[in-house]
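Quick one, C-alpha coordinates below. Sequence please?
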Protein backbone atom coordinates (compact mmCIF):
# COMPACT_ATOMS: atom_id res chain seq x y z
CA UNK A 1 0.00 0.00 0.00
CA UNK A 2 2.83 2.38 0.90
CA UNK A 3 4.56 1.70 -2.43
CA UNK A 4 1.31 2.38 -4.28
CA UNK A 5 1.00 5.73 -2.55
CA UNK A 6 4.46 6.82 -3.60
CA UNK A 7 3.92 5.56 -7.15
CA UNK A 8 0.75 7.63 -7.18
CA UNK A 9 2.60 10.65 -5.84
CA UNK A 10 5.39 10.25 -8.42
CA UNK A 11 2.83 10.11 -11.20
CA UNK A 12 1.11 13.22 -9.91
CA UNK A 13 4.39 15.11 -9.60
CA UNK A 14 5.26 14.15 -13.16
CA UNK A 15 1.94 15.59 -14.33
CA UNK A 16 2.47 18.79 -12.35
CA UNK A 17 5.99 19.14 -13.76
CA UNK A 18 4.65 18.64 -17.29
CA UNK A 19 2.08 21.38 -16.77
CA UNK A 20 4.75 23.68 -15.38
CA UNK A 21 7.10 23.11 -18.32
CA UNK A 22 4.39 23.55 -20.93
CA UNK A 23 2.84 26.58 -19.27
CA UNK A 24 6.24 28.22 -18.84
CA UNK A 25 6.95 27.70 -22.53
CA UNK A 26 3.57 29.20 -23.34
CA UNK A 27 4.23 32.23 -21.16
CA UNK A 28 7.59 32.86 -22.78
CA UNK A 29 5.96 32.69 -26.21
CA UNK A 30 3.17 34.98 -25.11
CA UNK A 31 5.46 37.55 -23.52
CA UNK A 32 7.74 39.64 -25.67
CA UNK A 33 10.39 42.00 -24.35
CA UNK A 34 8.81 44.17 -21.64
CA UNK A 35 8.67 47.91 -22.27
CA UNK A 36 10.01 49.88 -19.31
CA UNK A 37 8.17 53.22 -19.16
CA UNK A 38 8.93 55.96 -16.59
CA UNK A 39 5.81 57.52 -15.09
CA UNK A 40 7.00 60.23 -12.73
CA UNK A 41 10.68 59.58 -12.12
CA UNK A 42 10.21 57.09 -9.28
CA UNK A 43 7.52 54.67 -10.47
CA UNK A 44 7.58 52.51 -13.58
CA UNK A 45 4.98 50.62 -15.57
CA UNK A 46 5.79 47.34 -17.29
CA UNK A 47 3.76 46.75 -20.45
CA UNK A 48 3.74 43.37 -22.16
CA UNK A 49 2.78 42.38 -25.70
CA UNK A 50 1.08 38.98 -26.01
CA UNK A 51 0.49 36.45 -28.76
CA UNK A 52 -1.38 33.15 -28.80
CA UNK A 53 -0.11 29.65 -29.38
CA UNK A 54 -3.04 27.29 -29.83
CA UNK A 55 -1.07 24.06 -29.62
CA UNK A 56 0.63 24.86 -26.32
CA UNK A 57 -2.63 26.12 -24.82
CA UNK A 58 -4.36 22.89 -25.80
CA UNK A 59 -1.55 20.77 -24.39
CA UNK A 60 -1.60 22.62 -21.06
CA UNK A 61 -5.38 22.14 -20.89
CA UNK A 62 -4.98 18.39 -21.51
CA UNK A 63 -2.39 18.04 -18.75
CA UNK A 64 -4.53 20.05 -16.31
CA UNK A 65 -7.47 17.78 -17.09
CA UNK A 66 -5.29 14.74 -16.37
CA UNK A 67 -4.29 16.20 -13.00
CA UNK A 68 -7.91 16.86 -12.06
CA UNK A 69 -8.84 13.29 -13.04
CA UNK A 70 -6.15 11.93 -10.71
CA UNK A 71 -7.33 14.22 -7.92
CA UNK A 72 -10.89 12.91 -8.25
CA UNK A 73 -9.60 9.38 -7.75
CA UNK A 74 -7.51 10.59 -4.79
CA UNK A 75 -10.61 11.91 -3.03
CA UNK A 76 -12.39 8.59 -3.41
CA UNK A 77 -9.44 6.64 -1.98
CA UNK A 78 -9.04 8.93 1.02
CA UNK A 79 -12.71 9.28 1.89
CA UNK A 80 -12.40 6.93 4.88
CA UNK A 81 -9.93 9.15 6.76
CA UNK A 82 -11.77 11.27 9.31
CA UNK A 83 -9.18 13.68 10.73
CA UNK A 84 -8.67 17.21 9.44
CA UNK A 85 -5.35 18.97 9.99
CA UNK A 86 -5.61 22.76 10.29
CA UNK A 87 -2.36 24.40 9.21
CA UNK A 88 -2.23 28.14 10.06
CA UNK A 89 -0.17 30.47 7.87
CA UNK A 90 -0.33 33.83 9.64
CA UNK A 91 1.57 37.07 9.11
CA UNK A 92 4.20 38.04 6.56
CA UNK A 93 5.70 34.95 4.93
CA UNK A 94 9.47 34.66 5.16
CA UNK A 95 12.08 31.90 5.25
CA UNK A 96 11.25 31.13 8.88
CA UNK A 97 7.62 30.59 7.92
CA UNK A 98 8.61 28.23 5.12
CA UNK A 99 11.01 26.40 7.44
CA UNK A 100 8.06 25.59 9.70
CA UNK A 101 5.20 25.13 7.21
CA UNK A 102 6.94 23.02 4.55
CA UNK A 103 8.03 20.19 6.93
CA UNK A 104 4.59 20.34 8.57
CA UNK A 105 2.88 19.76 5.22
CA UNK A 106 5.29 16.94 4.44
CA UNK A 107 4.41 15.21 7.73
CA UNK A 108 0.72 15.68 7.09
CA UNK A 109 1.12 14.10 3.65
CA UNK A 110 2.64 10.97 5.20
CA UNK A 111 0.15 10.74 8.09
CA UNK A 112 -2.40 8.09 7.13
CA UNK A 113 -4.83 9.21 9.82
CA UNK A 114 -5.27 12.65 8.23
CA UNK A 115 -7.75 12.71 5.38
CA UNK A 116 -7.86 16.41 4.58
CA UNK A 117 -6.04 19.68 5.24
CA UNK A 118 -7.41 23.15 5.96
CA UNK A 119 -4.92 25.94 5.27
CA UNK A 120 -5.92 28.89 7.45
CA UNK A 121 -4.28 31.85 5.75
CA UNK A 122 -4.18 35.34 7.24
CA UNK A 123 -1.31 36.96 5.37
CA UNK A 124 -0.41 39.93 3.13
CA UNK A 125 2.25 37.80 1.41
CA UNK A 126 6.02 37.84 1.69
CA UNK A 127 9.26 36.71 0.06
CA UNK A 128 9.09 35.08 -3.36
CA UNK A 129 11.21 32.06 -2.38
CA UNK A 130 9.31 31.28 0.82
CA UNK A 131 5.92 31.71 -0.85
CA UNK A 132 6.82 29.45 -3.77
CA UNK A 133 8.29 26.80 -1.45
CA UNK A 134 5.02 26.58 0.47
CA UNK A 135 2.89 26.75 -2.69
CA UNK A 136 4.79 23.85 -4.28
CA UNK A 137 4.34 21.79 -1.12
CA UNK A 138 0.59 22.51 -1.14
CA UNK A 139 0.33 21.32 -4.76
CA UNK A 140 2.21 18.14 -3.84
CA UNK A 141 -0.02 17.57 -0.80
CA UNK A 142 -3.13 18.06 -2.91
CA UNK A 143 -2.06 15.06 -4.98
CA UNK A 144 -2.69 12.89 -1.91
CA UNK A 145 -5.43 14.59 0.10
CA UNK A 146 -8.14 17.24 -0.31
CA UNK A 147 -6.93 20.72 0.62
CA UNK A 148 -9.14 23.76 1.31
CA UNK A 149 -7.79 27.24 1.94
CA UNK A 150 -9.65 29.60 4.27
CA UNK A 151 -9.20 33.25 5.18
CA UNK A 152 -11.23 35.33 7.57
CA UNK A 153 -9.50 38.62 6.91
CA UNK A 154 -6.66 38.69 4.39
CA UNK A 155 -5.11 36.42 1.78
CA UNK A 156 -3.21 38.87 -0.39
CA UNK A 157 -0.34 38.55 -2.85
CA UNK A 158 1.82 35.64 -1.63
CA UNK A 159 -0.92 34.61 0.79
CA UNK A 160 -3.30 34.28 -2.13
CA UNK A 161 -0.58 32.60 -4.23
CA UNK A 162 -0.46 29.79 -1.65
CA UNK A 163 -4.26 29.59 -1.48
CA UNK A 164 -4.65 28.90 -5.21
CA UNK A 165 -2.66 25.70 -4.78
CA UNK A 166 -5.61 24.20 -2.87
CA UNK A 167 -8.72 22.46 -4.19
CA UNK A 168 -11.04 25.24 -3.06
CA UNK A 169 -10.89 28.66 -1.41
CA UNK A 170 -13.42 29.72 1.23
CA UNK A 171 -13.35 33.29 2.57
CA UNK A 172 -15.29 35.53 4.89
CA UNK A 173 -17.48 37.81 2.71
CA UNK A 174 -15.45 40.84 3.80
CA UNK A 175 -12.05 39.18 3.69
CA UNK A 176 -9.60 40.79 1.25
CA UNK A 177 -8.21 38.51 -1.44
CA UNK A 178 -6.05 39.01 -4.51
CA UNK A 179 -3.27 41.61 -4.79
CA UNK A 180 -1.90 39.54 -7.68
CA UNK A 181 1.46 41.04 -8.53
CA UNK A 182 5.14 41.34 -7.66
CA UNK A 183 6.96 44.11 -5.82
CA UNK A 184 10.60 45.14 -5.87
CA UNK A 185 11.82 47.74 -3.38
CA UNK A 186 15.04 49.70 -3.78
CA UNK A 187 16.12 52.44 -1.40
CA UNK A 188 18.64 54.91 -2.79
CA UNK A 189 20.41 56.55 0.15
CA UNK A 190 23.27 58.04 -1.89
CA UNK A 191 22.29 61.64 -1.06
CA UNK A 192 21.87 60.81 2.62
CA UNK A 193 25.32 59.23 2.67
CA UNK A 194 26.82 62.33 1.03
CA UNK A 195 25.03 64.72 3.44
CA UNK A 196 26.44 62.79 6.40
CA UNK A 197 29.95 62.56 4.97
CA UNK A 198 29.78 58.81 4.41
CA UNK A 199 31.93 57.53 1.55
CA UNK A 200 31.36 54.00 0.27
CA UNK A 201 34.13 52.12 -1.53
CA UNK A 202 33.06 48.92 -3.26
CA UNK A 203 35.34 46.20 -4.60
CA UNK A 204 33.38 43.90 -6.90
CA UNK A 205 33.97 41.22 -9.50
CA UNK A 206 31.26 42.38 -11.88
CA UNK A 207 29.53 45.66 -12.62
CA UNK A 208 26.18 44.35 -11.38
CA UNK A 209 27.43 42.59 -8.24
CA UNK A 210 26.12 45.41 -6.03
CA UNK A 211 22.93 45.91 -8.04
CA UNK A 212 20.20 47.16 -5.74
CA UNK A 213 22.59 48.37 -3.04
CA UNK A 214 21.36 51.33 -1.03
CA UNK A 215 24.51 53.40 -1.53
CA UNK A 216 23.87 54.09 -5.22
CA UNK A 217 21.14 54.46 -7.83
CA UNK A 218 20.22 51.75 -10.31
CA UNK A 219 21.70 52.07 -13.80
CA UNK A 220 19.41 51.90 -16.88
CA UNK A 221 20.66 48.37 -17.59
CA UNK A 222 19.87 47.30 -14.03
CA UNK A 223 16.39 48.79 -14.27
CA UNK A 224 15.79 46.63 -17.33
CA UNK A 225 17.22 43.55 -15.60
CA UNK A 226 14.93 44.06 -12.62
CA UNK A 227 12.00 44.73 -14.93
CA UNK A 228 12.59 41.37 -16.65
CA UNK A 229 12.90 39.56 -13.31
CA UNK A 230 9.67 41.11 -12.04
CA UNK A 231 7.92 40.11 -15.24
CA UNK A 232 9.13 36.51 -14.90
CA UNK A 233 7.88 36.21 -11.31
CA UNK A 234 4.62 37.90 -12.31
CA UNK A 235 4.03 35.39 -15.11
CA UNK A 236 4.63 32.53 -12.67
CA UNK A 237 2.02 34.07 -10.37
CA UNK A 238 -0.43 34.44 -13.27
CA UNK A 239 0.04 30.81 -14.28
CA UNK A 240 -0.47 29.56 -10.72
CA UNK A 241 -3.73 31.50 -10.39
CA UNK A 242 -4.89 30.45 -13.85
CA UNK A 243 -4.33 26.77 -13.13
CA UNK A 244 -5.63 26.88 -9.57
CA UNK A 245 -8.76 28.90 -10.39
CA UNK A 246 -9.39 27.19 -13.75
CA UNK A 247 -9.18 30.48 -15.66
CA UNK A 248 -7.28 31.47 -18.77
CA UNK A 249 -4.26 33.71 -18.38
CA UNK A 250 -6.17 36.57 -20.01
CA UNK A 251 -9.04 36.12 -17.54
CA UNK A 252 -6.55 36.13 -14.68
CA UNK A 253 -4.95 39.35 -15.93
CA UNK A 254 -8.24 41.17 -15.26
CA UNK A 255 -7.58 40.64 -11.54
CA UNK A 256 -3.81 41.13 -11.73
CA UNK A 257 -3.61 44.88 -11.14
CA UNK A 258 -2.32 44.55 -7.58
CA UNK A 259 -5.65 45.37 -5.93
CA UNK A 260 -7.45 43.28 -3.32
CA UNK A 261 -11.18 42.57 -3.45
CA UNK A 262 -13.77 41.75 -0.85
CA UNK A 263 -14.43 38.04 -1.25
CA UNK A 264 -18.16 38.64 -1.70
CA UNK A 265 -17.38 40.59 -4.88
CA UNK A 266 -15.22 37.87 -6.44
CA UNK A 267 -17.19 34.83 -5.32
CA UNK A 268 -17.01 32.28 -8.11
CA UNK A 269 -13.77 33.64 -9.53
CA UNK A 270 -11.01 34.33 -7.01
CA UNK A 271 -12.82 32.34 -4.30
CA UNK A 272 -15.21 29.38 -4.45
CA UNK A 273 -17.47 30.18 -1.54
CA UNK A 274 -17.98 32.82 1.14
CA UNK A 275 -18.54 31.88 4.76
CA UNK A 276 -16.72 31.39 8.04
CA UNK A 277 -14.30 28.85 9.45
CA UNK A 278 -17.10 26.31 9.93
CA UNK A 279 -18.10 26.76 6.30
CA UNK A 280 -14.56 25.87 5.25
CA UNK A 281 -14.54 22.79 7.49
CA UNK A 282 -17.89 21.66 6.09
CA UNK A 283 -16.61 22.10 2.53
CA UNK A 284 -13.52 20.05 3.31
CA UNK A 285 -15.64 17.32 4.90
CA UNK A 286 -17.71 17.25 1.72
CA UNK A 287 -14.58 16.74 -0.37
CA UNK A 288 -13.44 14.00 2.02
CA UNK A 289 -16.85 12.32 2.04
CA UNK A 290 -17.14 12.34 5.85
CA UNK A 291 -19.12 14.05 8.61
CA UNK A 292 -18.07 15.34 12.02
CA UNK A 293 -14.36 14.97 11.32
CA UNK A 294 -11.90 15.27 14.18
CA UNK A 295 -10.06 18.61 14.04
CA UNK A 296 -6.33 18.76 14.72
CA UNK A 297 -4.84 22.30 14.79
CA UNK A 298 -1.11 22.35 14.14
CA UNK A 299 1.32 24.94 15.45
CA UNK A 300 1.77 28.18 13.55
CA UNK A 301 5.22 29.78 13.22
CA UNK A 302 5.77 33.18 14.81
CA UNK A 303 8.51 35.29 13.27
CA UNK A 304 9.75 38.84 12.82
CA UNK A 305 10.24 40.32 9.38
CA UNK A 306 12.30 42.95 7.64
CA UNK A 307 12.46 43.64 3.90
CA UNK A 308 15.95 45.09 4.21
CA UNK A 309 16.95 47.52 1.46
CA UNK A 310 15.79 45.58 -1.59
CA UNK A 311 14.13 42.36 -2.64
CA UNK A 312 11.53 40.64 -4.79
CA UNK A 313 8.29 40.10 -2.94
CA UNK A 314 4.81 38.72 -3.33
CA UNK A 315 3.66 41.27 -0.78
CA UNK A 316 0.80 43.72 -0.52
CA UNK A 317 2.61 47.11 -0.45
CA UNK A 318 0.40 48.39 2.37
CA UNK A 319 2.44 46.20 4.70
CA UNK A 320 5.88 47.47 3.77
CA UNK A 321 7.89 48.54 6.78
CA UNK A 322 5.58 46.88 9.32
Amino acid sequence: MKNDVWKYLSFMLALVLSVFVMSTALLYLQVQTPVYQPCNGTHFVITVNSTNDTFLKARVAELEAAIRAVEMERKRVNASNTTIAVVPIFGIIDEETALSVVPTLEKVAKDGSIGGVLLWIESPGGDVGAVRDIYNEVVTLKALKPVVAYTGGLAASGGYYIAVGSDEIVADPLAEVGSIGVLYVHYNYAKNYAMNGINVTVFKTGKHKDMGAEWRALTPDERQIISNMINTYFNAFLQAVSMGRNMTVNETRKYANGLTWFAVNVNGTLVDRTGNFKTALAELERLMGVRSAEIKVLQSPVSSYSIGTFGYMYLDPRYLGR
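The two ends are 48 Å apart (CA to CA). Residues 85 and 296 are 5 Å apart (CA to CA).
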